[in-house]
Amino acid sequence: MTVYVSTRGRAGRRSFEEVLLAGLAEDGGLFLPESWPRLAEARLAALDGADYPTTTAAVMAPFTRGCFEEAELLALAREAYAGFAHPATAPLRQLDPSLWLLELFFGPTLAFKDFALQLLARLFERVLERRGETITILGATSGDTGSAAIRAIAGRARMRIVILHPAGRVSEVQRRQMTTIEAANVANLAIEGTFDDCQDLVKALFADPEFRAEQKLAAINSINWARIAAQAAYYVYAALRLGGLERPVSFCVPTGNFGDVYAGHVARRLGLPTGRLIVATNENDILARFLATGTYAAGTVVPTSSPSMDIQVASNFERLLFELLDGDGARVAELMARFARERAFTLSPALHARARGLFDGAAADRAATAAEIARWHAATAGTVLLDPHTAVGAAVARRLRGGVAGPLVLLATAHPAKFPDAVEAACGVRPPLPSHLADLFDRPERFGVLPADANAVRDFVRRLPAVPG
Ligand SMILES: *Cc1c(COP(=O)(O)O)cnc(C)c1O
Fold first, then answer.
1. Does 397 map to a domain?
2. Alpha carbon of 120 to those of 218, 230, 391, 430: distances in Å?
3. Distance between CA atoms of residues 432 and 419, nearest Å
4. pLDDT in tens, 296-313
5. Which domain CATH number covers 386?
6. Is 61 a member of any domain?
7. pTM, whole model, 2 decimals?
8. CA atoms of 208 and 401, how far apart (whole Å)
9. 455 partner at 20 to 30 Å CA-CA among 82, 175, 347, 401?
C-alpha cells in the first residue's frame, strides 16, 4: 500500500483513500507519499504512444496502491476524459522549432483543472460507495477550480459541494460557469475579500474538528494530493510525445498555488527525465521572488488580467519545503507558524540553492502579458490565441528559454474564451465561447454573498439541506 504522511509530521500514516477524502491533514499539513514510488524506465517507454486515459492510469497507480488497481483507474479515466473536446485530450501544438503549447483547455469548463477534477469526482464516488459515507466538499476558488469542481460534482450521489469565490474578482464567464449549474448538491458563495481570504476561511473550517467531523468535510483544492497525482499524467504524456526519454523536456507553467508545476515535479520524482521546470507568475510573484532571493514573503494581492493566479500564499509550496528540509515535519510546522505570524521566512543559502536546482522562475506583468497575446496573434495570423494565464507563461518562457536546452513545453492552462475581455483588449479579437457554453449568459445565476467571516460560512453550510445518502 502507498503510505502518506503529513508535511507537518504530526498526523498518522494514511492510505490514498484517506488522503483523497481528507484533503488537508489534521495537523494542518499537506499529505505526501512517505517515499516516492518510481515508474521503471521500461514502463515509461511502454507508455510512448499510449492514449491519455492509459497514461493517467499508469501514472496514478503507484500512488493509489491498496485502494485503486490500475484497471479500475483506467475505467474511471476513460469516463472522465470521454467528454473532452479533442481526440488527443491534451494536444501539443508546435509554436516554433523548440517551443510547444500543451493545450489543456478542452475539458467541460475550459481550463486545465478539469483534468484532475473530472477524475477526482469519480474517485470520490467509488470510495464513498465502498464506505457507505457522504461528504461535503468545501473549496476556495480564484475562478477555475470552482467551475471545474462544481461541474464534476453536480448531480453525483453521496456528496455536495460548497464553493467560495472572491466577490467581483473572477471573470464573468468563470462566475457564471459556477452559479448557473442547477443541481441540488451545489452551493456558491461570493466572499467579500480576496482569494487568499477564501482560502483562509476554508483552512479555518477544516481546522475546526467538530465542524469537520459533523459535515464530513472533504477538500478539492490543489492541496488535495489526488489532484496533483492526476495532473502529473499530462507531463508524462507530453514529454513522451516529444521523445522525452532521449532528450529531457522542460516545462513552463503559469503558476498560482504551485499545484500544477508541482505536479511536474511529481512526474520527475516518478522517474520522468525532466529538463527545467519554470514557474511563471503574474505580479503576484511570491514564488518568483522566493526563487530569486530565498525569502518566502507574502505581498498584497494585486488583481491582474490572470485572476486564477492572483495568489500570495502558494499552498503547495509547503510540499516542496518538506522535501527541502529532508522530511523534517517539525521544522516545516515551525516555518509555517512563522509565516502565519510574520507573513515571511527566509531559507538558508544552501536550501535556497536546492530549490533553485529544482525550479526556475520569473514574473510577467500585465503589459508583458498583453504584449504576448498580441505578439502570438500577429505572428500566427490569428491562429494562436493565448488566454492571459498562458500568456504570462509565454512572456516568462521568452525571457528564460535561453537557459533551457531541448524542447520547452508551455502549458496552456485556459481557453481564451474564458477571459474574453483581457484577450480582446490585448489583440482586438473577442474569442467566442465553444458551442456547449454559448447560452451561458442567458442562464439564471444562484449564489449567496457573505463577509470573510468563518462563523458566517459555518452557519451557511449548517443550514443547507442534508446530503442524500
Ligand atoms: C488555477 C490556474 C492556474 C494556476 O495553477 P496552480 O495550480 O494554482 O499553480 C493557472 N492558470 C489557470 C487558467 C488556472 O485556472
1. yes
2. 12, 8, 28, 33
3. 10
4. 999 998 989 998 898 888
5. 3.40.50.1100
6. no
7. 0.94
8. 45
9. 175
Range of 290's domain? 92-110+225-427
Position 313 scores a pLDDT of 86
- Asked if residue 190 belongs to a domain, the reply is no
Conformational region of residue 444, where left means phi above 0, alpha means psi within -120 to 50, and beta covers everything else: beta
Ligand 1 contact, 113 CB (< 6 A): yes
Q: What pLDDT does 393 receive? A: 98
Q: Give the Cβ contact number of residue 168 at 10 Å.
A: 9
Q: What is the total count of domains within the chain?
A: 1
Residue 308 and residue 171: Cα distance in Å, rounded? Answer: 9
Q: What is the pLDDT of residues 3-21, one digit of tens each?
A: 999 999 999 899 999 999 8
Q: Is the dihedral of CA 51, 433, 194, 138 positive or negative?
A: negative
**Which value, to the nearest 10 degrees, does the dihedral of the CA atoms of residues 400, 401, 403, 408 take?**
130
Q: What angle, rounded to 10 degrees, do the helices at 52-60 and 70-81 form?
A: 140
Question: Does residue 76 fall inside a structural domain?
Answer: no
Annotated catalytic residue: which of 113, 203, 216, 418?
113
Please report, rounded to a whole number, the percentage of residues in the chain having pLDDT higher than 90: 87
The C-alpha R_g of the chain, in whole angstroms, comes to 20
Interior CA angle at 322 toward 324 and 38, to 5°?
Answer: 85
CB of 389 shorter than 6 A to ligand 1: yes
- Residue 216 known to be catalytic: no
Tell me how far apart the alpha carbons of residues 258 and 261 are, in angstroms, rounded to a whole number: 6
**Residue whose CA is at the smallest distance from ligand 1 atom 2:** 308
Q: Which of 224, 79, 88, 222 is nearest to 152 (CA)?
A: 79
- Please give the DSSP secondary-structure letter assigned to residue 66: T
Beta strands at 448-451 and 186-192: parallel, antiparallel or unpaired:
parallel
